[in-house]
Amino acid sequence: MKYTLGTAVLGISALLGSTAFAQDNTLTINSFGGAYETAHRACIITPFEAATGAKVNVVTAYSADAFAQLRAQKDAPQFDVIHFSGGQEIVGAAEGLLAPIDPASLSNAADLYDFAKANLDKGQGPAYSIAAIGLVFNTEAVTTPPTQWTDLLNPDYSEHLVLTDISNAYGMLGFLMLNQVQGGDLTNIQPGLDAVGKLLDAGAVVVSTSPEIQQEFAQNDAWIAPYASDYAFTLRNAGLPSGFAQGAEGTPASFITTNLVAGRPNNELALKLIDMSISPEAQQCFADALRYSPTNTKTELSPEVAADVAYGEAGVAGLIRFDPAAIEANRTAWVEEWNKAIAR
According to the UniProt entry, where is the signal peptide (predicted)? Predict the structure, then answer.
């Protein structure tokens, strides 16, 4: 079933009921701008406002910037709900910037996969979408879809492979997975660096941004790139034949979380917004619009959309979340080593 604004309003009207809110009927949240923010408004914000009469003020701020604002405003935070895609909720919860959530306060919490609600009591908000990192490929040039991360080493792909710089969050996750299948881990990235060196020697290229990936597929005969599931959809919308495959060894995942900010007066209203974010209707809408993977077990996707994401028990079973705190602690040193490896 196609998710529409009308079904959103009906769905969350039943969810939210006619509760009268004692506090100011306004929430301030962040969103990530661009196509993401457009979908965020269509799938959650606008239906929420329509169903509750509340006003949601949106500050466009990516995860790192939003977290910096939250820290700076510790004694008087502006956000009621804050969204992260880089694991900042782990640090924010430890620093007391985020409030614990009682699962009983969320009607949809019971339907989430366990990994999406693992640390609510610690202040880490639920994951409401997943950006799955796998193998984006040209469906016309690659007639047999890749099935594992080691396929990146296939000599047939040598001059048609696009790697993404690890200054890019998705590039980092793809590199860490390549490192893992080559025998490395978060304490040793040398196997991954060695593999990257060999791939570059064989003809692979490195880009820094998503638009550069599209340019390589459109103009420079790129066939395959380790990147996020939503980007295969982006390429296809641009008229390029593309598909997405999860590697059998595992699927690195960027968790997009919705978090309750500590020290704010509108917790009841904020929790209703969080609850809507983890509803199957909202998650179906995000998957349809952007090809993010749902975390609610009751989310129903069309076969076309399901083929582009990590979906269902089997699809999410292979999700891997590399420790965001370890990534952040090592990022500067890793980027330095990466830059040495690709300087050729």
Answer: 1-22
